[in-house]
Design a protein that fits this description.
241 residues, alpha/beta, Rossmann fold, 2 domains, six-stranded mixed β-sheet, 26% strand
């Protein structure tokens, strides 16, 4: 269980990005954070893995406690993978080497400079196979289409063997058909492998089709928290002003 306990985030200039918020994310649950641009979706996600530190309140994780201190943060991040909108791949290197970066969190900085063991290469290839890209493992990442690059980003996340995947607008840069295929792949893998997911989206139809739970954000406040079937037009108007 990952929890936010009265967490707020204030950016320089006194801009309140997240008002005091309490949420708990259950294992195996596919949660969608829904809201317009500027609602605080990215800030909320980045707070869940320590990329953004709360201005007040606490983030807690079962078996670790409050996420404070380098050791706890490192252990949490090792089991928490991120999937980004812009993929964040290194284009000039191979797909396989990009996916292997998902294994670096298990090693010290000095050890990560050396070639990774065979076991890590096997895990990376298995991850590529899960997203249907094992046949392009040795191809330069920048030669792939946008949809393929997003799948490489997902494979890199899977190579961490995470218990939680955080995905920040993972399909925003894709056309509607490719976006649906990518989200279907992410959803099916998470369900099959019992990985919890927290995914930010702005597409209401995708949120309704894939989420077990929808958390609606508006101007840094949670204005809806429930099942997709409970999200009506009045609540959508509230989320989208």
């Amino acid at each position: 269980m990952l929890s936010l306990n009265a967490v707020s985030v204030v950016y320089p200039g006194e801009r309140m990005a997240i008002h005091p918020t309490t949420l708990a994310f259950a294992p195996d649950q596919f949660t969608v954070i829904l809201g317009p641009s500027g609602a605080g979706k990215s800030t909320l996600l980045r707070t869940l893995n320590g990329l953004v530190r709360p201005s007040s309140g606490a983030v807690t994780v079962d078996k670790l406690g409050e996420l404070v201190g380098r050791l706890r943060m490192r252990r949490h991040r090792a089991s928490t993978a991120m999937v980004f909108q812009q993929h964040h791949l290194i284009g000039r290197i191979s797909v396989l080497r990009n996916v292997l970066m998902g294994r670096l969190g298990y090693y010290s900085t000095a050890r990560s400079l050396l070639p990774l063991p065979r076991r890590d290469h096997l895990i990376a290839m298995e991850s590529l196979d899960k997203v249907g890209l094992a046949d392009v493992a040795l191809v330069r990442a920048d030669t792939l289409s946008g949809g393929q690059q997003q799948r490489v980003g997902l494979a890199r996340a899977l190579a961490q063997q995470p218990g939680l995947i955080l995905a920040d607008e993972p399909v925003a840069s894709l056309d509607p058909a490719t976006a649906r295929r990518a989200l279907t792949l992410l959803h099916d893998i998470c369900k099959r492998e019992s990985i919890a997911a927290v995914v930010s989206l702005h597409q209401v139809d995708l949120a309704r089709d894939f989420a077990d739970r929808i958390v609606g954000l508006s101007r840094g406040r949670v204005v809806f928290d429930g099942e997709p079937g409970d999200l009506n037009q009045q609540q959508l108007d509230h989320i989208y002003h």
